[in-house]
Specification:
The protein is of the alpha/beta class. Helix content is 35%, strand content 14%.
Length: 300
């Protein structure tokens, strides 16, 4: 996970290195502003991934997770089609229901109830899937509509790019089972590590039941390791242990945050209350160093 908080001259080496280090996939958050970093530098996910696609060639890239709080499926389908084309079929769409907080309030809309957010998420996934797989789509829902939305030219990946659906509740898990090529969870919030792992185990079992109810044997399963109270890359042994535990629970993939000297554990991702996970000591708002030439990056 590489936070979209750096100007591109500083961010580019991270995406290159993620591929060079042999990671299977690299992700970024999709927010208009994130938690305590809302007043800090922040860049949009789609152009960030577009730029990342141009400086990599093999690693898969994706959003974790795209948000219905500020995206419409018809326009988003166009962006995803372009991303999949530019990356030559390397995009995976992580998609979620859209959280509370800044993203939900900044556009001035009213706060949705949990049931309304679940309804909107269902419409979002259904319509996005339709626009990406049908030549022409008409749709009328409570939250979204489309009139003659076109697919052409379609995704490089057929019938469309893969969806990895974020889900903890039964309705979202149902969407993951019906539309997802993958499922992702962060567990539930706990201050104690073993309690967090128990929540992950429980969710994994429940998702297996939902898969069976929908007639599917398996999909890829992703775990956000740093959503728990321990930063997964606080040591090599810690990382190996967490990856092993995730594998035992049936997860095919894990996601960790880009490390930095200022990320000191206790949930690098979740403790975004001043912690600077994924950050470099170089201020993200600084312009490109004068010693850098166009198209090249100078690093310390």
């Amino acid at each position: 996970m590489i936070l979209p908080e750096h100007r591109w001259w500083a961010a580019e080496p991270m995406w290159r290195m993620a591929e060079e280090y042999g990671f299977a996939h690299a992700w970024t958050y999709d927010h208009l502003g994130w938690r305590s970093l809302v007043d800090k530098p922040w860049f949009d996910a789609v152009p960030t991934l577009t730029a990342a696609a141009t400086v990599t060639s093999t690693i898969r890239l994706g959003t974790l997770v795209a948000s219905p709080n500020f995206r419409h499926p018809v326009h988003f389908a166009r962006e995803l089609t372009a991303l999949d084309d530019i990356s030559d079929g390397r995009i995976t769409l992580g998609i979620g229901s859209g959280g509370l907080g800044f993203d939900a309030a900044v556009l001035g809309g009213g706060e949705l109830s949990p049931a309304q957010r679940a309804d909107r998420f269902g419409e979002f996934v259904e319509l996005l899937d339709a626009v990406l797989t049908q030549d022409v789509t008409d749709y009328s829902g409570e939250h979204y509509a489309a009139v003659g939305a076109r697919r052409s030219p379609g995704c490089v990946q057929q019938p469309r790019l893969p969806f990895v659906v974020a889900a903890n509740g039964p309705r979202a898990m149902g969407l993951a089972a019906r539309y997802g090529q993958g499922w992702v969870t962060a567990g539930t919030s706990h201050d104690e590590e073993e309690a967090w792992w128990r929540s992950v185990a429980d969710l994994s079992l429940r998702f297996g039941d939902v898969l069976a109810e929908n007639g599917r044997e398996k999909v890829d399963r992703y775990l956000q390791l740093d959503a728990g109270p321990v930063y997964s890359m606080s040591s090599v042994e810690c990382f190996r242990n967490m990856v092993g535990r995730a594998r035992e629970l049936g997860f095919t993939d894990v996601i960790t945050h880009w490390p930095s000297a200022t990320c000191t554990g206790s949930s690098c991702a979740a403790k975004a209350t001043g912690g600077r996970c994924g950050s470099s000591p170089t201020p993200a708002s600084q312009p490109r160093p004068r010693s850098s030439k166009p198209g090249r990056t100078t690093t310390a």
